[in-house]
Design brief:
Layout lengths: L7 H9 L9 E5 L11 E6 L7 H13 L4 E7 L12 H12 L5 E6 L4 H8 L8 E7 H7 L8 H11 L1 E5 L7 H7 L11 E4 L3 H4 L3 H9 L29
């Protein structure tokens, strides 16, 4: 198996420095050399568990880029998810895979965030970019639903207003829900006030069905996954490094 470009020790130390009990913080593992610098631009942020990176993630980025042509793409891993334990690939390995993928992509950054809620991610991202930078999160339908779950907020109205003032969203369908499920959800009375800040993309059924759990399950069975992951990371996928169970992200 090929070696990762960043050592596990370096990544472990970086992760250890991001405590979830403090203010939201962002740490870059790789800053895009041709990304947003002194002038504001459009920042597309795909925040996911990347457990591991899959072709579905890449489809989301590609289709989102048609709606909002990016000046930079940020692949963001949260150190702690709002309702998921860390299972499958260790966080250090996931970050290493992301770094390997972006090595030849000058407009792509990789970072890790201390917090899991999107309102906190937006707060952590903003200090690292010029004022008036357009922040657009790319998410799947399952994440969009969680975004509006009131159990994650002390004051849902205040938190959502703050979030949608700071960021827009591009949401794609996920199996088994049909593509029109996203638009139906946006029509809900509690969601509709924010629907103007949510763009919708439709993924082909075969891509919408791809999940990282599927990758880990195949690896555990000794089956091939070349059709599910980008070729850059395929040689780095150790079947003994991940558990196939639980988190479907």
């Amino acid at each position: 198996m090929d070696r990762l470009s960043a050592s596990d020790q370096q990544l472990t130390e970086l992760l250890a420095g991001l405590a979830a009990d403090g203010p939201p913080r962002l740490a870059f593992v790789r800053r895009a050399p041709a990304g947003i610098m002194e002038q504001p631009g459009s920042l597309l942020c795909l925040s996911a568990s990347f457990n591991p990176l899959t072709v579905a993630h890449l489809w989301l980025v590609r289709e989102a880029s048609r709606i909002v042509p990016p000046d930079e793409i940020l692949l963001l891993l949260a150190r702690a998810n709002v309702d998921k334990a860390v299972e499958g690939f260790p966080l250090e390995h996931r970050l290493g895979l992301l770094v390997r993928y972006v090595e030849t992509r000058a407009a792509c950054s990789v970072a890790v965030c201390s917090h899991g809620r999107f309102v906190d991610k937006a707060e952590a991202i903003q200090p690292h970019y010029p004022p008036r930078t357009r922040l657009v999160f790319i998410i799947g339908f399952d994440t969009l639903v969680r975004l509006f779950d009131t159990k994650y907020y002390t004051d849902p109205g205040e938190a959502l207003s703050r979030l949608f003032s700071a960021a827009e969203f591009i949401a794609g369908n996920r199996a088994p829900d049909p593509p029109d499920a996203v638009r139906s959800f946006l029509a809900r009375p509690d969601v509709a006030p924010y629907a103007g800040r949510v763009h919708v993309i439709e993924l082909p059924a075969e891509i919408a069905a791809v999940s990282a759990t599927q990758v880990r399950t195949r690896l555990a069975r000794g089956e091939g996954v070349a059709d599910l992951v980008p070729p850059e990371i395929y040689p780095l996928l150790d079947p003994h490094a991940a558990s196939p169970t639980k988190a479907r992200h």
